[in-house]
Amino acid sequence: MRVRAPRSDAYHQLREAIVSGQFHPNERLVEAAVAQRMGVGRTAVRAALVRLDQEGLVTLEPNRGARVRHISDREALEIEEVRGALEGLLARRAAERATADDLQELRQVISEMRERVERGDALGYSELNARFHQLIWTAADHPTAARIAGDLKSQAIRFQYQTALRPGRAQRSLHEHEAIFNALKTHDPDGAEAAMRDHLAEVIDTLRWAIDGLRRGERWLPG
Amino acid sequence: MRVRAPRSDAYHQLREAIVSGQFHPNERLVEAAVAQRMGVGRTAVRAALVRLDQEGLVTLEPNRGARVRHISDREALEIEEVRGALEGLLARRAAERATADDLQELRQVISEMRERVERGDALGYSELNARFHQLIWTAADHPTAARIAGDLKSQAIRFQYQTALRPGRAQRSLHEHEAIFNALKTHDPDGAEAAMRDHLAEVIDTLRWAIDGLRRGERWLPG
DNA sequence: GATGGCTGGATTGTCGACATTATTGACGAT
DNA sequence: ATCGTCAATAATGTCGACAATCCAGCCATC
């Protein structure tokens, strides 16, 4: 088995840079500049841009180059809706086929989440949140749904803080996750899907609120 | 407004060729050959292949070139499951916001479908089926979900005959579509989603059956 | 006969050069 | 001042050539 080149390849490097926010939305990505910055040829950058365009992280206009894709508020909500539908499916499947090991790991994550909430560590909670969902994807064993859900998550990443850091959100989120876990534990597909959909519906509501708030000029971020 | 170049571009041409079955699954796509066939340069073909790879119609292995992606039976089922989830969402939204015009068009399609079923025109029915779903996407006004559902449909196209031409399938399919339409007509989101999910679940069952049948050597296609 | 390395042909990957296309800013006419 | 024209510049799009890689068939060896 061959170990893949760590991350010298342009696609992963550029993808990481975009997802981690090193480029602003709508920022232009000039091929030559990007190529130099990552120490690869322009050819590789071009290929990466095409992929990222198809993936929705970049927009590519003929003869006008590439920009980091700007996700509108409306689109962010759409993305979360689709994620809700997909994660519902994944939760259902996970409830059907989760192994004892899967459940054990999930239990652990839940308990760590509880801890983080108690000490008010919203960022740590957010990481565990991601981990929780990923464990479900693994248990569900449904590559098609998982791949699409992953792509969507990357696109919406810019909005995650607007929900995660909302005061009081973590507590409710924890309850929702516990409900999901309980359904998985008892291998209850309908329950798991319903709990997951409830959860994502809450996220969407929170996001909608946050967006409306921002639009009205409200400021709630620390600092 | 600018009219886009009809289809001289490699991506659309190649995509069309693959979706319409001019290349077999697993067939190798040699860049030079494809380029010549479509009268474009190798560069354009390369770009097209990268896009199609990301889109799931082609697999691209480093240094080993491109092949038409072979969708396994298992994956076809997965794709239909995801489509079910997405189309459920779309149906829900369509029920919420379908205009009188949308409903009028849908009514028309349904009545043509009825006609086709009566005269046993399975292929004509299949076309109307596609049209029906597309009208729902339009009414739902949800670009994100519609785009993804469209991509999935392209991937699974090879399997559509295995359900559509199954004897007796058309009648039941018609009933299911009528149920969906009734829910849309009364602006009943829950009902529309449920009806759509039932419909896709039936499709999946049929597909599962067809696959098992083929595996046992059964032949049911005309000719 | 099976195994393992070698070689030639075919194919993909990359680079640099150049053509094509947008964009910017200056300049002059109205 | 405003608009349109036009040249200068910067970036993208395309091509051909070459390097790197893979693969099939051949041959020597056991």
Name its key features.
homodimer, 223 residues, mainly alpha, Four Helix Bundle (Hemerythrin (Met), subunit A), 2 domains, 3 strands, DNA-binding
Fold and architecture overview:
2 copies of one chain form a homodimer. Chain A has 223 residues and is mainly alpha-helical. Chain A has 2 domains: 10-68, Winged helix-like DNA-binding domain superfamily/Winged helix DNA-binding domain (Arc Repressor Mutant, subunit A, Orthogonal Bundle); 73-215, GntR ligand-binding domain-like (Four Helix Bundle (Hemerythrin (Met), subunit A), Up-down Bundle), CATH 1.20.120.530. Chain A has helices at residues 10-19, 31-38, 42-55, 73-97, 100-118, 122-140, 143-156, 160-164, 169-185, 189-215, and strands spanning 28-29, 58-61, 65-68. A 3-stranded antiparallel beta sheet of chain A has the order 1-3-2. In chain A, a hairpin with a 3-residue loop joins strand 2 and strand 3. In chain A, helix 4 (73-97) runs antiparallel to helix 10 (189-215). The radius of gyration of chain A is 19 Å and the shape is globular. The model of chain A is unreliable at 1-6 (pLDDT under 50). Chain A binds chain B through residues 46-47, 50-51, 53-55, 75, 78-79, 81-82, 84-86, 88-89, 142-145, 148, and chain B through 46-47, 50-51, 53-55, 75, 78-79, 81-82, 84-86, 88-89, 142-145, 148. The structure holds a DNA duplex (30 and 30 nucleotides).
